[in-house]
Structures are given as C-alpha cells and as structure tokens.
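WARN no homologs supplied; continuing
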Amino acid sequence: MQQQSLNPATIKRVIVRGANWVGDTAITIPALRELRLLLPHAHITLATRAGNAGLLTDADFIDDLLISRDESWKSVRSEIQKWKCGNFDLAVLFPNSFQTALIPGLARVPLRLGYATQGRSFLLTHPLETPAWRNERHEVYYYLNIISALEMMLQKNSEPANREPDFGLTVSDERSVRARAALHSLGVAEGRPLVALCPGSINSRAKRWPAERYAGLGDRLIEELGAEVLLIGSANEQDVSLAVAKQMRNEPAIATGSSSLAEATAILNLADLLVTNDTGPAHIAAALGRPTIVIFGPTNPLTTRPFSANSEIIRHPPDCAPCMLRDCPIDHRCMTAISVEDVFERARASLAAAELMKNKEKSDQMCGTETDQKSQDRAKAS
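OK structure emitted
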C-alpha cells in the first residue's frame, strides 16, 4: 500500500488513542510531549479510558480528552461516531490491538499511524514495524518510537531529534491545597515524613509483596523514623490495604479507594517516599519526580521499571523470574525473598537523602535572601 504523504501544515486536529492502564498512560507522557513539540499548533485530543483521565488533569501537552466509557465491541459504533465528529486529520495509535485501529479506520480519519500488529496493517495508512528491541528497552521508547517515525515523515529526515524523555507531570497549586486538606482529614500530621505504601496490584496477585511484610515495614517506618504512613490504592485493592492495616501495631492512614485518580496523584505529589509493587502508582510517582521504591518479582524491570532518576527497584530474582504470570504456581519465592529489612533500609536511606536535599534548598534560599538584602542595602547607600 502506497503511503500518503504527510504535510504538517494540513494536520490541524490530532487524536491519540492512549494506553489502557494507568501505569502505561504515565509511560506515554514523554511521547505525548514529543508530539506536542512536533505539532505545536495542532489541537491534540487524547482518547482514553475514564479511569485514566485523572492522571492528566493539569497536562499542558494535550488540549482535551475523549473518554471511552465502554471498551466492549458493542461500543464500537458509538466510538466511530465520536471520532467522526472530531474531524481529525491524524490518528496516532499507542495500543497494539486490532480494535484500536478499526475505529479510526471506519471513522475515515485520513492519516492513521501505529504498529502493524494483530493483522491490522490494512487499517493503517502508515503502519510501523515493531522494533526488534521491543523486549530489550524500556516501554517508554516503544511509544516514543511512534512519534520519532512521525517526525521523520513530517520533516523528511532520516533521523529524529535525540532528546531525553520528558515526563514532566505537574500538579496545580489548587489541587495541592486540596490534597493537603485531604491528608489532614485522614489524620496525617504535617512536619513528619510522609511515606505512601501501595500494597496492591489490580491485574496480578503475583506482583504483590506479602501484606504482613508491608505491615512490618509500616510499623518500622512509624516507630524508628517517626514517619506518617499512608496506604493507597484503588477501590479494588481495599481488601489488601485493610489486611496490611489489621496486621500493624500502629494505625496507618488509609486513602485506598476513597480518592479519585486526580486526587491520589495530587496526594502522591506531597509524599516524601512511595513504596509500591510494580503497579500504576509507581509510574505516577516517577512522573511527578517523587522518590519511589518498587518491589519487583514476576515482572521485567528492564521494560517496566519507573523511568526516573528518583526511583529505585528491589529485586532478588530466582531462576524462574521474570515469569510474567499473574498467579504464582509454586511458592512466590521472587517476592518472599525480599525482607522487611531490605526495604526498610532502602527507605531509610531515601528519606535521609530527601531531608538533606530539603535542608540544602532551605540554605540556598536563605543565602539568596541575604544576598538580595545586601544588594538592596548597597543600592540604598549609593
């Protein structure tokens, strides 16, 4: 099939079919930012699931959201109509599924770009080969590769610009104020280190570090470091958080299931540290630049670790890891090999480093204030 030529001047309205899970949505942020840089004057719509929308509440790299409330095949007709009404010039498809290419194809979006997976090449005007390094590099580059291909098509270059991936997720001051109020209502005291624990995982029980170990970690954080411990997660993970709280000697604050994704993101932005399994909040905290410790077991950190210098992983892999299974068929040795002591010592070091950084920032601010005052005094004297 002969590909249609791409002219950036004619691409005024773009729709991006976003990733399906919250963590994957966070991983696509650098690709969305690159798309905004590539088409600065285009109107960019992100089509995503309702559950992902709160992550992008303050996003400056998209213009609006098109929410899919029903992912079943029965909804295809209504989705096609929504896409038709958008009068889009270009569809960029992040997921690999056949259905995500069928909708823009039947909606007659003129330009359709995505990976040639699941037999959907004929639905794409610009199909891309899956990169050979797919399982050897972080997923962030899988999505960035789509935008790089678009850049080469638009600018007729043989090589795309080489920029560091930019997560750059921010939370507005207004949302931060509301998040502080929410923490206060949960009994979280200010002035103490705030450590969020995410002991659940919606799509895999095998990714869960045992509840009793999260409980032991929470108690040590409170008793030895004077931290405030906050349990977080979705409504589907309430049972896990309650199991952790029940086994703790000290009472933690529990926000699991009681806040929207937008609210949970704003709360995470206030945390001094997140300790979590390999699940969505790990990638949200990374995008926010918050210190994060991720406990890895059955999954592959090479491709799915949080993509941030402030994140670190703990992993003691047996021969069977990474198996990528959702339930362990044997004794869950990849997770039980990780002790409370392992995680606590990493958490202690992370909080100490964060405290040093805070003190340095305060010192720099004081020095700056003193310098400004001396400059003003000299100006008055002259």
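DSSP finds 13 helices and twelve strands in the chain.
OK
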